[in-house]
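Q: My labmate handed me this sequence with no annotations at all. I'd like to see what the chain might look like in three dimensions before we decide whether it's worth expressing. Could you predict it?
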Amino acid sequence: MTAATSAPTVEGSAPVGTDYDVVVVGGGIAGLSAALSARENGATVALLERATAEETGGNTRYTEAYLRMKTVDEPSDGLAETLVDDFMGHPDPGITADSALDWSRRSPLLRSHHVVDLDYVTTFEDNAGPTLRWLEQHGIRFGQLPTLFLTVSTTRMAPVGGGLALVETLGAKARALGVDFHFETTARSLVLDDSGTVTGIEAVGPTGRRRTFSGSVVLASGGYQGNAELMARYHGELGMLCRPVARGGNYNKGEGLEMAMAVGAATAGNFSLFHAEPVDPRSGDPEAAIMAFTYGILVNVHGERFVDEARGPIDAWYERTTRDIQRQPRGMAWMILDAHGQAIPNIRTAIRTDEAPVKGATLAELAGRIDIDPATLEATVAAYNAGCPDGDWDPTRPDGLATDGVEPPKSNWAKPIDSGPFIAYPIMCANVFTFGGLKVDASSRVVDRDGRAIPGLYAAGEMTGLYYSNYTGSTSVLRGATFGRIAGEGAAAQSPSVAAPRDAEGSS
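A: Here is what I predict for the chain of 508 residues:
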């Protein structure tokens, strides 16, 4: 094994260049999994993290880290099918017809195509359970923990302690095993040799001094939701009508994507969308989610309904509804609940903001307090109420109580808004992570635009493209861990100092 040059994480005394077997960019679940995996496979490892040690972990640090699993060993039903059935546009069937062939037999056009690799999805499903067992060996515990959804479409688990437990436990384990952490250090560009192999990273530390970290590279630095210029480039004027869902997302500025694309990396996923979540714009809390609008109505800043608030279980539909909110004037809406909605058992579970609702004894009073014309709001509610049917209202499941003769309709939980006092919460669109990312194969190798794996370059987590029209809920942390582990092992195997002893052992 090549010994890493002794280099403290304090920039002032660091050498200009440092040799490692593997260099990981990013300290969230994907990066930590990659660093641990590479170290366990015999590599010397550096982990570069833009944030301070106190804020390391990116989005992972702030998420509850729900996992689309039935048990620790078994993914939820339909995981692979849901990912593959996500609408990917209308790709040429002459190109995608060979998707079932082995990687080496596929055309270069297919290998570099933006649609999801079927082998990747299969590998994800097959390795999700073993990855959770691997995390258990490193001190992570899992359980069937409560979610913020009062109605659900799938099963979920979560790590005890959420994403913060993942960051702190795995970070401590990685340090104990000898991974070198370099905080306040931002990767700027890839280093390639004359053969096109990635051999390291150019980075900038806290003093602004540039240095080179040599080794195979795993990019795990998230998307670009913290970069206003890239948000405007890919999302136009709607880019201003959202913000990262948590503080960690502000560190995700897209350098990993840019440096890989600069050396010819192909892309996958949908660069025109991101994972959207409805949050209270007044709150500074991470994921200040408002997930109770299925039981009331949504109106825009003009006091008008604009969307079917209850097309199905909230966990399956909130993202699409949030995008509808983003397209409204000022990118905002108000959720209005009457006394019946407020009395739903556990309703506060679905309202995570630390800010109090706006209250009014009457609709007119409420309208005045949220700066909406009272007559308009009263007319909107009256039209909605007139279309609500009689029937048993069941907030625990989609009940089929749908409006009649109202535009837009409401497909479930259509109950009149007629009992004061009334409350309202503002909702805006939060950007959890961006959908567009790098194209990788089932081994987490980054693929170039000619369908070849770029030697020495791997990627994992939210910076790799997988989602297109709708986020498959509770899969982001799960795939970050799964493919981070795969990428770390693959990157370690690229190092001659790691591979040589294995080769000798195999031939003895």
